[in-house]
Specification:
This protein is of the alpha/beta class. The chain has 2 domains: 2-153 and 296-344, Medium-chain alcohol dehydrogenases, catalytic domain (Quinone Oxidoreductase, Chain A, domain 1, Alpha-Beta Complex), CATH 3.90.180.10; 162-291, 3-Layer(aba) Sandwich (Rossmann fold), CATH 3.40.50. Helices cover 26% and strands 26% of the residues. The strands form 3 sheets. Strands 3, 5, 6, 7, 8, 15 and 16 form a 7-stranded mixed sheet that branches. The chain has a 6-stranded parallel sheet with strand order 11-10-9-12-13-14, with helices on both faces. Strands 2-1-4 form a 3-stranded antiparallel sheet, with no helix packed on it. A hairpin with a 2-residue loop joins strand 1 and strand 2 (11-16). It is globular. Bound molecules: zinc ion (2 copies).
């Protein structure tokens, strides 16, 4: 079968590899769509990324093609989503519903394994998955649903962790209307009473934001922070979701967060800000809580699938044939993909 693999740091290639053999508790999934994420670019450009000759793709959906001897509850042809967090399921964190920070498989500073991040991922004709990590998709189209495994999951988790600041009357700022941001806006619109401000550098992406529930869109310029402060009577936004994480967006986020605000740094663009435990800690107002959320819990995953089934969340996808995967990577890097790029084998 064809698979898009990381063959060396900085180099991806669509190769011929064997169809994976499944263990008794595994399911072979015929991939319908595999989303392409900024993390894939991060993996591509990490000089010492440890998992070479691994199939990329951590946003995968498809149809059950074969069942291991011990698998129950699935039948051939079922549409399924592959959950990103391959946690142990039995440690104290997992049983408390925090499987995204599994103590056994992730530990204090690591991550639980996930497809395309160690084990082979979904940018291939087939993927093998332990049955524990499959979510039924019902009537959802697996090509359009694939990004729910990360763009949907991660934005759902970031928002669920900020609900105490998203009451009616609140203002939420979404920075970056890309794969995650355009889904995050829809989740916020569907599940909160907050006023939504979307910020992006691209007029095209702001148009997408308008269509997905933003009450106000702002094209980034030197006055963006002041504009948001003016919109909130100088007090700032109750919640800020930075889905980009580069220095200018982190600067903006810290300049507009309100006292007691929920500052969520989701994008991994490498930006930062100084913090000191003193009375004059610029740039943060008092009471701000900062979080670097990772992926999401199984419950977050179910919730965003349910929102999609209700038609309240839909991913804008731009499809590429799997063989054109390298072109999709280049387009994502150039920032020209509207919504989410999805590779279709
Ligand atoms: Zn990702
Ligand atoms: Zn665990």
């Amino acid at each position: 079968m064809q698979a898009l693999q990381l063959v060396a740091p900085g180099t991806i290639e669509v190769r011929d590899v064997p169809v994976p053999a499944i263990a008794p508790d595994e399911v072979l999934v015929r991939v319908a769509g595999a989303g392409l994420c900024h993390s894939d670019l991060h993996i591509l450009h990490t000089p010492d990324w440890p998992a070479l000759n691994v199939t990329l793709g951590h946003e995968t959906a498809g149809h059950v093609a074969a069942l291991g001897a011990n698998v129950s509850g699935f039948a051939e042809g079922d549409p399924v989503l592959v959950y990103l967090v391959w946690a142990c399921g039995v440690c104290r964190q997992c049983v408390a519903g925090r499987d995204n920070v599994c103590a056994t498989t992730g530990g204090r500073l690591g991550l639980p394994p996930g497809p395309g991040l160690g084990p082979d991922g979904g940018m291939a004709e087939y993927i093998k998955v332990n049955q524990r990590f499959l979510e039924p998709l019902g009537d959802l189209d697996p090509v359009r649903a694939a990004p729910l495994a990360d763009a949907g999951l991660t934005s759902m988790h970031a928002i669920n962790g900020a609900r105490h600041r998203l009451d009616p009357g609140a203002t939420a700022v979404v920075i970056g209307v890309g794969g995650l941001g355009h889904v995050g806006l829809q989740i916020l619109a569907a599940t909160t009473g907050a006023r939504l401000i979307a910020v992006d550098t691209s007029e095209q992406k702001l148009e997408i934001a308008r269509g997905h529930g933003a009450d106000l869109v702002i094209k980034t310029d030197a006055d963006t922070a002041q504009r948001i402060l003016d919109e909130t009577s100088g007090y700032g936004a109750d919640a800020v979701f930075d889905f980009v994480g580069v220095q200018p967006t982190v600067d903006l986020a810290t300049q507009v967060i309100a006292p007691d605000g929920a500052l969520r740094l989701v994008g991994l663009g490498g930006g930062g800000f100084p913090y000191r435990a003193d009375a004059a800690t610029a740039p943060l107002p008092w009471g701000v809580d900062v979080r670097r959320p990772y992926a999401g819990t199984r419950s977050d995953q179910r919730q965003v699938i349910d929102l999609a089934k209700q038609g309240k969340v839909s991913v804008d996808v731009t499809t590429y044939p799997l063989a054109d995967g390298p072109r999709a990577f280049a387009d994502l890097e150039a920032g020209t993909v509207p919504g989410r790029a999805v590779l279709v084998p």
